[in-house]
Specification:
The chain is an alpha/beta fold and 360 residues long. Helix 9 packs parallel to helix 10 and helix 9 runs parallel beside helix 12. It comes from Trichinella patagoniensis.
């Protein structure tokens, strides 16, 4: 009984100090947890204010799939417009209390919401300029610094909104926000086909299991440069209109039709009746249907279909079954060192430009 008296006196003394001097020592947040013998101590860190805001934003109800985001543009005309000293650039400031644009941008952080709304998010000045040059309809342009809008021939009907740097960093889907983003309407296949030139290569590329945004963006940019007719993305690939894919492609989406989420059972609906099928596969040694890219002669008057898979998993079983049904041939790119394989985008680019060289 007497052994507990010092502990009781210690607690009473600290309670008295807390009441008299207004301190709250007993309820402070702990800085370190001291373990017993044989265990290591570890520090306790409080989350920052910015981290708390991000957590609250991710838990917000507007990111749920069953919530509808309505676009109301009546408030835009009521807000005050500002102009630069030259009078060429006009914009408005974001109204945090009543602007429905906040909910719209937050909802666009969800890939599913972007698909439903049929909109795309463009980040970066060069990408926005490519969209304007291709005739893509911009809805909103958000920026932090007014200097970003210099030498940008944006249409007058586009809603230009100035926001804070903190809000730009929060809304951006990139690791390093470029300071300007735009919300645009996703172009249709007819609009993209009109922007293509007349020198179209009779080549259709089927992407099978490509999930890396950087590889997909590089592939789209190379195929748009060579003049490919269309790209078919089989179910299981990444979203081709993702922000990172758009940045990697540098605006090539606006010049080549891309058909997504296609099953192998419906792949023939997007192909002509007669075509030659080739598979870009590195594992083709001692195969009967193997052909080297250096000796292959492509036909001019018939559509060429090229199937490209991921360098990690290769071609799927459905792709190989589709090749057997349509007499497909595997293309082999000879290399001096067989221990390494080419990137999927690089391999498809080499084959596409070889087809262009033979047909030119």
């Amino acid at each position: 009984m007497l052994g507990n008296i010092p502990h009781f006196v210690f607690v009473v003394r600290h309670l008295t100090k807390s009441v008299i001097f207004g301190t709250n020592k007993l309820f402070r947040f702990p800085k370190r947890i001291i373990k017993t013998d044989g265990e290591d101590d570890h520090l306790i860190f409080r989350p920052s204010i910015a981290e708390k805001r991000k957590r609250r934003m991710l838990r917000a109800p507007y990111l749920e799939t069953n919530v509808k985001v309505e676009t109301n543009t009546k408030h835009i005309a009521e807000q005050q417009l500002f102009k630069d000293p030259s009078g060429k650039i006009s914009w408005r400031n974001l109204n945090v209390k009543s602007d429905t644009l906040i909910e719209k941008i937050r909802a666009m952080r969800s890939r599913q919401r972007r698909k439903i709304a049929n909109t795309i998010l463009l980040e970066g000045k060069n990408l926005i300029m490519e969209a304007v040059a291709a005739g893509i309809q911009l809805q909103h342009v958000l920026f932090c610094d007014l200097k970003v809008l210099e030498n940008m021939p944006l249409p007058d009907e586009v809603d230009k909104v100035r926001i804070s740097t903190h809000r730009m960093n929060t809304w951006s889907l990139l690791d390093s926000p470029p300071g300007i983003m735009a919300v645009a309407k996703k172009p249709t296949y007819e609009e993209i086909s009109k922007s293509k030139n007349s020198n179209i290569l009779p080549l259709t590329v089927i992407c099978d299991g490509m999930k890396d945004p950087g590889n997909v963006g590089s592939l789209i940019r190379s195929l748009a440069a060579v003049g490919c007719r269309r790209i078919l993305a089989v179910t299981g690939c990444c979203y081709f209109w993702e922000v990172k894919v758009l940045r990697s492609a540098s605006g090539a989406h606006f010049y080549i039709p891309v058909y997504e989420d296609i099953s192998w059972n419906r792949i023939l609906d997007y192909l002509p009746h007669d075509f030659f099928l080739y598979l870009a596969d590195s594992n083709v040694k001692n195969q009967k249907n193997e052909e080297s890219l250096l000796t292959t002669r492509f036909q001019r008057d018939t559509e060429i279909v090229l199937v490209v898979g991921s360098e990690r998993t290769g071609l799927s079983e459905q792709a190989l079954r589709f090749s057997e049904q349509h007499a497909g041939k595997r293309l082999h790119i000879p290399m001096t060192n067989d221990k390494f394989c080419l990137n999927s985008a690089v391999a498809a680019t080499l084959i596409a430009f070889e087809i262009r060289r033979q047909m030119s």
